Amino acid sequence: MEEIINLNIGGAKFSTTLETLKKLPNTRLCDLAIHIEKAAQNIKHNGITIHDLESMPENEIDVKEIKKSEFKSEKQDQPKAVLEYIKIEENEYFYDREPEVFRCVLNLYRTGHLHIPSYLCTPMVRTELKFWQIEEILIGPCCLSSYKKFDDAKVIIKEIENFFQEDVYKETSPDQHGSTSLRLRIAIWKFSTDPDSSAAAKVWLLIQWLIIIASFIIIALETIPATRVLIPTNETQIEDHEFDVLLQDKEFRINRTSINSALYFTDIAIMFFMLLELTIKFTCAPSKLKFLKSMSCIFDMLAVFPQFVTFLILFINPDLILENRVFETFFMVMWLCRLFRIGRFMVVMKKVSGFRIMCLSLKSSYKELALLVLCISFGMIIFSSLMFYAELQNPGTFDNIFIGLWWSIVTMTTVGYGDMAPESTYGYLVGGICTLSGIITTGLAIPIISNKFTKYYEYANMKVFWEKYQQVNFKKAIKNGVNDKIKPNHKLSEVLESLC
Length: 500
Description:
With 500 residues, this protein is mainly alpha-helical. The protein has helices at residues 18-21, 28-46, 50-54, 61-76, 99-111, 122-131, 141-147, 149-164, 180-193, 199-222, 240-246, 250-255, 261-284, 288-293, 295-316, 320-323, 325-337, 340-349, 353-364, 366-390, 401-412, 425-479, 492-498; strands spanning 4-9, 12-17, 86-89, 92-95, 228-230, 257-259. The chain has 23 helices and six strands. GO terms for molecular function: voltage-gated potassium channel activity.
Protein backbone atom coordinates (compact mmCIF):
# COMPACT_ATOMS: atom_id res chain seq x y z
CA MET A 1 0.00 0.00 0.00
CA GLU A 2 1.35 3.42 -1.00
CA GLU A 3 2.20 5.78 1.86
CA ILE A 4 0.20 9.02 2.06
CA ILE A 5 2.02 12.31 2.67
CA ASN A 6 0.36 15.56 3.72
CA LEU A 7 1.77 18.88 2.54
CA ASN A 8 0.76 22.16 4.16
CA ILE A 9 1.51 24.93 1.63
CA GLY A 10 0.89 28.38 3.05
CA GLY A 11 -2.03 27.07 5.13
CA ALA A 12 -3.64 25.04 2.34
CA LYS A 13 -3.38 21.28 2.84
CA PHE A 14 -2.63 18.84 0.02
CA SER A 15 -2.47 15.06 0.21
CA THR A 16 -0.64 12.78 -2.20
CA THR A 17 1.58 9.69 -2.20
CA LEU A 18 5.33 9.32 -2.09
CA GLU A 19 5.25 7.46 -5.39
CA THR A 20 3.55 10.44 -7.03
CA LEU A 21 6.24 12.83 -5.81
CA LYS A 22 8.98 10.55 -7.15
CA LYS A 23 7.73 10.84 -10.75
CA LEU A 24 9.88 13.92 -11.48
CA PRO A 25 13.51 13.31 -10.47
CA ASN A 26 15.82 16.16 -9.43
CA THR A 27 12.97 18.27 -8.08
CA ARG A 28 12.36 19.48 -4.53
CA LEU A 29 9.34 17.27 -3.89
CA CYS A 30 11.08 14.20 -5.31
CA ASP A 31 14.05 14.81 -3.02
CA LEU A 32 11.62 15.20 -0.11
CA ALA A 33 9.97 11.86 -0.91
CA ILE A 34 13.35 10.11 -1.13
CA HIS A 35 14.40 11.72 2.16
CA ILE A 36 11.24 10.52 3.91
CA GLU A 37 11.70 6.97 2.63
CA LYS A 38 15.35 6.86 3.75
CA ALA A 39 14.43 8.24 7.17
CA ALA A 40 11.74 5.60 7.55
CA GLN A 41 14.19 2.85 6.59
CA ASN A 42 16.80 4.10 9.10
CA ILE A 43 14.25 4.32 11.89
CA LYS A 44 13.08 0.81 11.13
CA HIS A 45 16.68 -0.40 11.06
CA ASN A 46 17.61 1.26 14.38
CA GLY A 47 14.32 0.42 16.01
CA ILE A 48 14.09 3.86 17.60
CA THR A 49 12.73 7.28 16.60
CA ILE A 50 13.87 10.78 17.47
CA HIS A 51 10.82 11.11 19.76
CA ASP A 52 11.90 8.00 21.64
CA LEU A 53 15.34 9.54 22.10
CA GLU A 54 13.91 12.70 23.64
CA SER A 55 11.88 10.68 26.18
CA MET A 56 14.75 8.38 27.35
CA PRO A 57 15.72 8.55 31.04
CA GLU A 58 19.06 10.03 32.04
CA ASN A 59 20.59 6.67 32.95
CA GLU A 60 20.45 5.73 29.25
CA ILE A 61 22.30 8.87 28.18
CA ASP A 62 25.01 7.06 26.23
CA VAL A 63 22.55 5.25 24.04
CA LYS A 64 20.59 8.49 23.65
CA GLU A 65 23.60 10.49 22.45
CA ILE A 66 24.65 7.74 20.07
CA LYS A 67 21.21 7.52 18.49
CA LYS A 68 20.93 11.31 18.25
CA SER A 69 24.29 11.59 16.49
CA GLU A 70 23.29 8.91 14.01
CA PHE A 71 20.02 10.69 13.27
CA LYS A 72 21.70 14.12 12.87
CA SER A 73 24.43 12.78 10.61
CA GLU A 74 21.78 11.23 8.42
CA LYS A 75 19.92 14.54 8.30
CA GLN A 76 23.06 16.50 7.39
CA ASP A 77 23.67 14.24 4.41
CA GLN A 78 20.40 15.35 2.80
CA PRO A 79 20.27 18.12 0.17
CA LYS A 80 19.80 21.59 1.61
CA ALA A 81 16.67 22.11 -0.50
CA VAL A 82 14.95 19.14 1.20
CA LEU A 83 15.34 20.62 4.67
CA GLU A 84 13.51 23.90 3.89
CA TYR A 85 10.31 22.72 5.51
CA ILE A 86 8.78 22.58 8.98
CA LYS A 87 7.50 19.23 10.18
CA ILE A 88 4.22 19.96 11.96
CA GLU A 89 3.33 16.42 12.95
CA GLU A 90 3.95 12.90 11.81
CA ASN A 91 3.72 12.69 8.00
CA GLU A 92 2.81 16.40 7.53
CA TYR A 93 5.28 18.96 6.18
CA PHE A 94 4.82 22.71 6.00
CA TYR A 95 6.21 25.04 3.28
CA ASP A 96 5.59 28.77 3.51
CA ARG A 97 4.91 29.14 -0.20
CA GLU A 98 2.10 30.19 -2.57
CA PRO A 99 -0.62 27.46 -2.53
CA GLU A 100 -2.30 28.45 -5.81
CA VAL A 101 0.83 27.80 -7.85
CA PHE A 102 1.59 24.65 -5.85
CA ARG A 103 -1.77 23.25 -6.94
CA CYS A 104 -0.50 23.43 -10.54
CA VAL A 105 2.85 21.91 -9.53
CA LEU A 106 1.19 18.98 -7.77
CA ASN A 107 -1.04 18.35 -10.79
CA LEU A 108 2.16 18.09 -12.85
CA TYR A 109 3.28 15.18 -10.67
CA ARG A 110 -0.16 13.58 -10.94
CA THR A 111 -0.90 14.01 -14.65
CA GLY A 112 2.44 14.83 -16.26
CA HIS A 113 1.04 18.13 -17.60
CA LEU A 114 1.76 21.60 -16.19
CA HIS A 115 -1.12 24.05 -16.71
CA ILE A 116 -0.94 27.63 -15.42
CA PRO A 117 -4.21 29.64 -15.06
CA SER A 118 -4.14 32.92 -16.97
CA TYR A 119 -5.07 34.95 -13.87
CA LEU A 120 -1.82 34.08 -12.08
CA CYS A 121 0.98 36.65 -12.21
CA THR A 122 3.90 35.41 -14.29
CA PRO A 123 6.71 36.64 -11.94
CA MET A 124 5.02 34.90 -9.01
CA VAL A 125 4.61 31.66 -11.00
CA ARG A 126 8.21 31.87 -12.18
CA THR A 127 9.49 32.34 -8.62
CA GLU A 128 7.47 29.39 -7.34
CA LEU A 129 8.52 27.11 -10.19
CA LYS A 130 12.13 27.98 -9.45
CA PHE A 131 11.64 27.11 -5.78
CA TRP A 132 10.05 23.75 -6.61
CA GLN A 133 12.81 23.16 -9.20
CA ILE A 134 10.35 22.82 -12.09
CA GLU A 135 11.54 23.83 -15.58
CA GLU A 136 9.40 26.34 -17.49
CA ILE A 137 9.67 24.19 -20.61
CA LEU A 138 7.15 21.81 -19.00
CA ILE A 139 4.37 24.42 -19.22
CA GLY A 140 1.67 23.29 -21.65
CA PRO A 141 1.41 25.02 -25.05
CA CYS A 142 -2.17 26.01 -24.22
CA CYS A 143 -0.92 28.19 -21.35
CA LEU A 144 2.16 29.72 -22.98
CA SER A 145 0.29 32.60 -24.61
CA SER A 146 -0.89 34.10 -21.31
CA TYR A 147 2.29 33.07 -19.47
CA LYS A 148 4.56 34.89 -21.94
CA LYS A 149 2.57 38.14 -21.81
CA PHE A 150 4.81 39.39 -19.02
CA ASP A 151 7.95 38.81 -21.09
CA ASP A 152 6.32 40.56 -24.04
CA ALA A 153 5.41 43.46 -21.76
CA LYS A 154 9.03 43.80 -20.60
CA VAL A 155 10.29 43.92 -24.18
CA ILE A 156 7.65 46.42 -25.31
CA ILE A 157 8.09 48.72 -22.29
CA LYS A 158 11.86 48.68 -22.79
CA GLU A 159 11.31 49.54 -26.46
CA ILE A 160 8.93 52.37 -25.52
CA GLU A 161 11.40 53.79 -23.00
CA ASN A 162 14.23 53.74 -25.53
CA PHE A 163 12.03 55.33 -28.20
CA PHE A 164 10.78 58.05 -25.85
CA GLN A 165 14.34 58.79 -24.73
CA GLU A 166 15.71 59.34 -28.26
CA ASP A 167 15.75 63.12 -27.87
CA VAL A 168 16.71 63.16 -24.18
CA TYR A 169 20.47 63.20 -24.12
CA LYS A 170 21.03 63.38 -20.38
CA GLU A 171 18.85 62.72 -17.36
CA THR A 172 18.92 66.08 -15.61
CA SER A 173 16.71 67.96 -13.20
CA PRO A 174 16.45 71.68 -12.50
CA ASP A 175 16.63 70.91 -8.78
CA GLN A 176 20.07 69.34 -8.94
CA HIS A 177 23.15 71.24 -7.81
CA GLY A 178 24.69 73.54 -10.36
CA SER A 179 24.97 77.11 -11.47
CA THR A 180 21.94 79.28 -12.09
CA SER A 181 22.64 79.33 -15.83
CA LEU A 182 22.79 75.53 -15.93
CA ARG A 183 19.47 75.17 -14.12
CA LEU A 184 17.96 77.78 -16.43
CA ARG A 185 19.15 75.96 -19.56
CA ILE A 186 17.78 72.66 -18.25
CA ALA A 187 14.42 74.25 -17.46
CA ILE A 188 14.18 75.92 -20.90
CA TRP A 189 15.17 72.69 -22.66
CA LYS A 190 12.53 70.71 -20.78
CA PHE A 191 9.96 73.43 -21.41
CA SER A 192 10.60 73.44 -25.17
CA THR A 193 10.85 69.67 -25.71
CA ASP A 194 8.53 68.05 -23.14
CA PRO A 195 4.87 69.19 -23.30
CA ASP A 196 4.01 67.04 -20.27
CA SER A 197 6.46 68.91 -18.03
CA SER A 198 4.06 71.79 -17.27
CA ALA A 199 0.90 73.56 -18.36
CA ALA A 200 3.01 76.34 -19.90
CA ALA A 201 4.83 73.75 -22.02
CA LYS A 202 1.47 72.57 -23.38
CA VAL A 203 0.60 76.17 -24.29
CA TRP A 204 3.98 76.48 -26.02
CA LEU A 205 3.22 73.34 -28.03
CA LEU A 206 -0.10 74.86 -29.08
CA ILE A 207 1.69 78.05 -30.19
CA GLN A 208 4.08 75.96 -32.30
CA TRP A 209 1.13 74.26 -33.99
CA LEU A 210 -0.47 77.64 -34.71
CA ILE A 211 2.80 78.91 -36.22
CA ILE A 212 3.04 75.86 -38.47
CA ILE A 213 -0.59 76.25 -39.58
CA ALA A 214 0.00 79.96 -40.25
CA SER A 215 3.08 79.08 -42.31
CA PHE A 216 1.05 76.69 -44.45
CA ILE A 217 -1.74 79.24 -44.91
CA ILE A 218 0.78 81.86 -46.10
CA ILE A 219 2.43 79.39 -48.50
CA ALA A 220 -1.01 78.48 -49.85
CA LEU A 221 -2.11 82.11 -50.19
CA GLU A 222 1.08 82.94 -52.11
CA THR A 223 -0.08 80.66 -54.92
CA ILE A 224 -3.29 82.66 -55.47
CA PRO A 225 -2.90 85.24 -58.28
CA ALA A 226 -4.88 87.84 -56.32
CA THR A 227 -2.15 88.01 -53.65
CA ARG A 228 0.70 88.62 -56.14
CA VAL A 229 2.07 92.01 -57.16
CA LEU A 230 4.54 92.75 -59.94
CA ILE A 231 8.15 93.32 -58.91
CA PRO A 232 8.95 96.94 -59.92
CA THR A 233 11.70 97.22 -62.59
CA ASN A 234 13.05 99.73 -65.12
CA GLU A 235 11.63 97.63 -67.96
CA THR A 236 8.51 98.46 -69.93
CA GLN A 237 5.45 98.60 -67.73
CA ILE A 238 2.93 95.79 -68.12
CA GLU A 239 -0.72 96.65 -68.48
CA ASP A 240 -3.18 95.27 -65.96
CA HIS A 241 -4.95 92.98 -68.44
CA GLU A 242 -1.58 91.64 -69.67
CA PHE A 243 -0.49 91.09 -66.06
CA ASP A 244 -3.63 89.04 -65.35
CA VAL A 245 -2.84 86.82 -68.33
CA LEU A 246 0.82 86.40 -67.30
CA LEU A 247 -0.25 85.43 -63.79
CA GLN A 248 -1.73 82.22 -65.20
CA ASP A 249 1.85 81.08 -65.84
CA LYS A 250 2.91 79.52 -62.52
CA GLU A 251 6.63 80.06 -63.10
CA PHE A 252 6.08 83.76 -63.89
CA ARG A 253 3.86 84.04 -60.82
CA ILE A 254 6.60 82.73 -58.53
CA ASN A 255 9.73 84.31 -60.06
CA ARG A 256 8.51 87.63 -61.50
CA THR A 257 6.03 88.65 -58.83
CA SER A 258 6.03 88.96 -55.07
CA ILE A 259 3.39 88.64 -52.39
CA ASN A 260 1.65 91.68 -50.99
CA SER A 261 3.16 93.49 -48.02
CA ALA A 262 0.81 92.02 -45.37
CA LEU A 263 1.71 88.43 -46.23
CA TYR A 264 5.37 89.36 -46.71
CA PHE A 265 5.85 90.87 -43.24
CA THR A 266 3.85 88.07 -41.60
CA ASP A 267 6.10 85.54 -43.32
CA ILE A 268 9.23 87.40 -42.20
CA ALA A 269 7.93 87.50 -38.61
CA ILE A 270 7.38 83.72 -38.67
CA MET A 271 10.88 83.23 -40.07
CA PHE A 272 12.49 85.26 -37.27
CA PHE A 273 10.36 83.47 -34.68
CA MET A 274 11.57 80.09 -35.95
CA LEU A 275 15.17 81.36 -36.09
CA LEU A 276 14.93 82.57 -32.48
CA GLU A 277 13.44 79.26 -31.35
CA LEU A 278 16.19 77.31 -33.11
CA THR A 279 18.88 79.49 -31.50
CA ILE A 280 17.42 79.05 -28.01
CA LYS A 281 17.15 75.27 -28.45
CA PHE A 282 20.74 75.04 -29.64
CA THR A 283 21.96 77.14 -26.71
CA CYS A 284 20.10 75.06 -24.11
CA ALA A 285 20.61 71.61 -25.64
CA PRO A 286 22.46 69.22 -23.27
CA SER A 287 24.45 67.91 -26.24
CA LYS A 288 25.04 70.36 -29.08
CA LEU A 289 26.32 67.71 -31.49
CA LYS A 290 23.38 65.37 -30.96
CA PHE A 291 20.96 68.26 -31.30
CA LEU A 292 22.47 69.24 -34.66
CA LYS A 293 22.03 65.63 -35.82
CA SER A 294 18.41 65.44 -34.66
CA MET A 295 15.55 65.46 -37.16
CA SER A 296 13.99 68.46 -35.43
CA CYS A 297 17.10 70.60 -35.96
CA ILE A 298 17.51 69.49 -39.58
CA PHE A 299 13.91 70.41 -40.45
CA ASP A 300 14.22 73.76 -38.70
CA MET A 301 17.46 74.66 -40.49
CA LEU A 302 16.09 73.64 -43.89
CA ALA A 303 12.98 75.72 -43.25
CA VAL A 304 14.70 78.82 -41.86
CA PHE A 305 18.16 79.33 -43.35
CA PRO A 306 17.28 79.22 -47.08
CA GLN A 307 14.59 81.84 -46.56
CA PHE A 308 16.90 83.90 -44.35
CA VAL A 309 19.59 83.87 -47.06
CA THR A 310 17.00 84.87 -49.66
CA PHE A 311 15.78 87.68 -47.42
CA LEU A 312 19.30 89.07 -46.99
CA ILE A 313 20.09 88.92 -50.73
CA LEU A 314 16.84 90.62 -51.73
CA PHE A 315 17.30 93.19 -48.99
CA ILE A 316 20.71 94.09 -50.44
CA ASN A 317 19.75 93.87 -54.15
CA PRO A 318 16.02 93.41 -54.90
CA ASP A 319 16.62 93.29 -58.71
CA LEU A 320 19.08 90.38 -58.57
CA ILE A 321 16.44 87.77 -59.34
CA LEU A 322 15.52 89.60 -62.56
CA GLU A 323 19.08 90.11 -63.76
CA ASN A 324 20.41 86.55 -63.72
CA ARG A 325 18.73 83.29 -64.76
CA VAL A 326 20.96 81.35 -62.37
CA PHE A 327 19.74 83.40 -59.42
CA GLU A 328 16.17 82.87 -60.63
CA THR A 329 16.64 79.10 -60.34
CA PHE A 330 18.40 79.55 -57.01
CA PHE A 331 15.51 81.55 -55.58
CA MET A 332 13.06 78.92 -56.86
CA VAL A 333 14.94 76.24 -54.90
CA MET A 334 15.07 78.48 -51.83
CA TRP A 335 11.33 79.03 -52.10
CA LEU A 336 10.71 75.29 -52.24
CA CYS A 337 12.77 74.84 -49.06
CA ARG A 338 10.10 76.77 -47.20
CA LEU A 339 7.91 73.70 -47.54
CA PHE A 340 10.03 72.15 -44.79
CA ARG A 341 8.07 74.38 -42.44
CA ILE A 342 5.15 72.04 -43.00
CA GLY A 343 7.47 69.13 -42.25
CA ARG A 344 8.02 70.65 -38.82
CA PHE A 345 4.48 69.54 -38.05
CA MET A 346 5.77 65.96 -37.84
CA VAL A 347 8.55 67.07 -35.51
CA VAL A 348 6.12 68.90 -33.22
CA MET A 349 3.68 65.99 -33.32
CA LYS A 350 6.49 63.71 -32.16
CA LYS A 351 6.23 65.41 -28.78
CA VAL A 352 2.70 64.01 -28.42
CA SER A 353 2.90 60.57 -26.80
CA GLY A 354 0.00 59.12 -28.82
CA PHE A 355 1.65 60.06 -32.10
CA ARG A 356 4.97 58.60 -30.96
CA ILE A 357 3.24 55.36 -30.01
CA MET A 358 1.69 55.22 -33.47
CA CYS A 359 5.13 55.69 -35.05
CA LEU A 360 6.60 53.03 -32.78
CA SER A 361 3.84 50.55 -33.61
CA LEU A 362 4.44 51.15 -37.32
CA LYS A 363 8.17 50.70 -36.77
CA SER A 364 7.63 47.41 -34.94
CA SER A 365 5.21 46.25 -37.67
CA TYR A 366 7.76 46.59 -40.46
CA LYS A 367 7.52 42.88 -41.28
CA GLU A 368 3.73 43.06 -41.69
CA LEU A 369 4.03 46.29 -43.69
CA ALA A 370 6.72 44.76 -45.91
CA LEU A 371 4.49 41.73 -46.50
CA LEU A 372 1.55 44.02 -47.31
CA VAL A 373 3.63 46.01 -49.83
CA LEU A 374 4.93 42.79 -51.35
CA CYS A 375 1.43 41.34 -51.76
CA ILE A 376 0.07 44.56 -53.28
CA SER A 377 3.07 44.83 -55.62
CA PHE A 378 2.58 41.24 -56.74
CA GLY A 379 -1.12 41.94 -57.31
CA MET A 380 -0.30 45.08 -59.30
CA ILE A 381 1.96 43.14 -61.65
CA ILE A 382 -0.56 40.34 -62.15
CA PHE A 383 -3.71 42.43 -62.61
CA SER A 384 -2.11 45.16 -64.73
CA SER A 385 -0.89 42.50 -67.16
CA LEU A 386 -4.24 40.69 -67.18
CA MET A 387 -6.14 43.95 -67.69
CA PHE A 388 -3.99 44.97 -70.64
CA TYR A 389 -4.75 41.72 -72.49
CA ALA A 390 -8.39 41.68 -71.34
CA GLU A 391 -8.85 45.12 -72.95
CA LEU A 392 -6.78 44.29 -76.04
CA GLN A 393 -9.74 44.85 -78.37
CA ASN A 394 -10.53 48.26 -76.86
CA PRO A 395 -7.85 50.69 -78.11
CA GLY A 396 -9.17 53.57 -75.99
CA THR A 397 -8.41 51.91 -72.65
CA PHE A 398 -5.20 50.72 -71.02
CA ASP A 399 -2.69 51.59 -73.74
CA ASN A 400 0.12 49.83 -71.88
CA ILE A 401 0.85 47.82 -68.76
CA PHE A 402 2.35 50.82 -66.93
CA ILE A 403 -1.03 52.54 -67.02
CA GLY A 404 -2.47 49.26 -65.76
CA LEU A 405 -0.12 49.45 -62.76
CA TRP A 406 -1.65 52.79 -61.79
CA TRP A 407 -5.17 51.38 -62.19
CA SER A 408 -4.39 48.22 -60.20
CA ILE A 409 -2.95 50.00 -57.13
CA VAL A 410 -5.88 52.43 -57.06
CA THR A 411 -8.29 49.49 -57.33
CA MET A 412 -6.57 47.21 -54.80
CA THR A 413 -6.46 49.98 -52.19
CA THR A 414 -10.19 50.62 -52.88
CA VAL A 415 -9.54 54.29 -53.71
CA GLY A 416 -11.04 54.10 -57.18
CA TYR A 417 -10.41 57.49 -58.83
CA GLY A 418 -12.54 56.50 -61.80
CA ASP A 419 -10.12 58.04 -64.31
CA MET A 420 -9.96 54.73 -66.18
CA ALA A 421 -12.18 51.68 -66.20
CA PRO A 422 -12.53 48.47 -68.23
CA GLU A 423 -15.13 48.21 -70.98
CA SER A 424 -15.09 44.51 -71.88
CA THR A 425 -16.56 41.53 -70.05
CA TYR A 426 -13.12 40.09 -69.36
CA GLY A 427 -12.01 43.49 -68.10
CA TYR A 428 -14.91 43.62 -65.64
CA LEU A 429 -13.99 40.13 -64.41
CA VAL A 430 -10.34 41.09 -63.87
CA GLY A 431 -11.39 44.32 -62.15
CA GLY A 432 -13.72 42.47 -59.77
CA ILE A 433 -11.06 39.94 -58.81
CA CYS A 434 -8.53 42.76 -58.35
CA THR A 435 -10.89 44.61 -55.99
CA LEU A 436 -11.59 41.50 -53.89
CA SER A 437 -7.88 40.70 -53.71
CA GLY A 438 -7.13 44.20 -52.45
CA ILE A 439 -9.83 44.00 -49.76
CA ILE A 440 -8.55 40.63 -48.52
CA THR A 441 -4.88 41.68 -48.59
CA THR A 442 -5.32 44.97 -46.74
CA GLY A 443 -8.01 43.53 -44.46
CA LEU A 444 -5.62 40.90 -43.10
CA ALA A 445 -2.64 43.18 -42.47
CA ILE A 446 -4.28 46.31 -41.05
CA PRO A 447 -5.87 44.65 -37.95
CA ILE A 448 -2.43 43.27 -36.98
CA ILE A 449 -0.96 46.78 -37.02
CA SER A 450 -4.02 48.11 -35.19
CA ASN A 451 -3.65 45.50 -32.44
CA LYS A 452 0.02 46.38 -32.04
CA PHE A 453 -0.88 50.04 -31.66
CA THR A 454 -3.46 49.16 -28.98
CA LYS A 455 -0.91 47.04 -27.11
CA TYR A 456 1.83 49.68 -27.30
CA TYR A 457 -0.60 52.41 -26.23
CA GLU A 458 -1.69 50.33 -23.23
CA TYR A 459 1.90 49.78 -22.09
CA ALA A 460 2.76 53.43 -22.71
CA ASN A 461 -0.07 54.45 -20.38
CA MET A 462 1.30 51.96 -17.85
CA LYS A 463 4.70 53.66 -18.12
CA VAL A 464 3.14 57.11 -17.60
CA PHE A 465 1.20 55.82 -14.59
CA TRP A 466 4.39 54.37 -13.09
CA GLU A 467 6.26 57.67 -13.51
CA LYS A 468 3.43 59.60 -11.84
CA TYR A 469 3.26 56.98 -9.10
CA GLN A 470 6.95 57.43 -8.36
CA GLN A 471 6.73 61.21 -8.26
CA VAL A 472 3.59 61.52 -6.12
CA ASN A 473 3.19 58.37 -4.03
CA PHE A 474 6.65 56.85 -3.70
CA LYS A 475 7.37 57.87 -0.11
CA LYS A 476 3.91 56.87 1.02
CA ALA A 477 4.23 53.50 -0.71
CA ILE A 478 7.58 52.79 0.95
CA LYS A 479 5.99 53.37 4.36
CA ASN A 480 3.31 50.84 3.47
CA GLY A 481 5.88 48.17 2.70
CA VAL A 482 6.69 48.38 -1.01
CA ASN A 483 9.62 46.23 -2.15
CA ASP A 484 12.90 47.83 -1.04
CA LYS A 485 14.43 47.02 -4.43
CA ILE A 486 12.19 49.64 -6.03
CA LYS A 487 14.06 52.93 -5.80
CA PRO A 488 13.03 56.43 -6.95
CA ASN A 489 13.47 57.20 -10.66
CA HIS A 490 13.77 53.54 -11.60
CA LYS A 491 12.54 52.81 -15.08
CA LEU A 492 9.51 50.55 -15.31
CA SER A 493 11.48 48.03 -17.36
CA GLU A 494 14.09 47.80 -14.59
CA VAL A 495 11.39 47.21 -12.00
CA LEU A 496 9.78 44.46 -14.09
CA GLU A 497 13.19 42.87 -14.59
CA SER A 498 13.76 42.79 -10.82
CA LEU A 499 10.55 40.84 -10.26
CA CYS A 500 11.93 37.64 -11.78
